[in-house]
Structures are given as structure tokens and as C-alpha cells.
Amino acid sequence: MHEYAAAGGLISYGPSLTGLWRQVGIYAGRILKGAKPADLPVQQPTTFELVVNLKTAKALGLTVPPSILARADEVIE
Q: DSSP states of 46-63 as a string?
């Protein structure tokens, strides 16, 4: 959920939208090939992303630990 941090949120962690759309495409392909939607299993997100907004942290007077920054998929400066 990169959009929340990009809009000014401090930190966002959630499923990767790219990964979700990829799963939607795979499902659509299965349905177009004749699979019944009711027969398809429920899918869970498999990729997640952590985004840290350092501009917001600075505005709030917070210091983000280096261990969090090292794990982040994206850091907004």
C-alpha cells in the first residue's frame, strides 16, 4: 500500500498491488480457459511491501531505526 506513505503517511505495510493484480490476471486467465469461478481456491497475498516516509518522520520529530530502514522496500526522503 505504497500510496498511503506517498500521500504523507509515516509507514505502510501491506500486500504489493503489483502482486495482487498479477493474481487477478492469473484467475481471469483460468476463467477464460473454462474454469468455473466457484471451483477456484481463495488466494492470499504472497508479496508484501514496507514503505517508510522519512519526510513525515522528520516533521513529527521521529527517528526511524536503521533496522527498519534496512528492511524497507522503499524509503521516501
A: --EEEEEEHHHHHHHT--
Residues of the chain whose pLDDT is less than 50?
none
Residue 75 corresponds to which cell in the numbers above?
A: 524509503
Handedness of CA 16, 74, 58, 77 (dihedral sign): negative
- The Cα–Cα gap between 7 and 15 comes to 17
Say what the pLDDT of residue 18 is. Answer: 87
What burial class does residue 52 get, using C-beta atoms within 10 Å of its C-beta: 0-12 exposed, 13-18 middle, 19+ buried?
Answer: buried
Contact between 13 and 49 (Cβ < 8 Å)? yes
Compute φ and ψ for 74, nearest 5 degrees: -150, 140
Residue type, 56: T
- Give dist(CA 5, CA 50) in Å, integer: 9
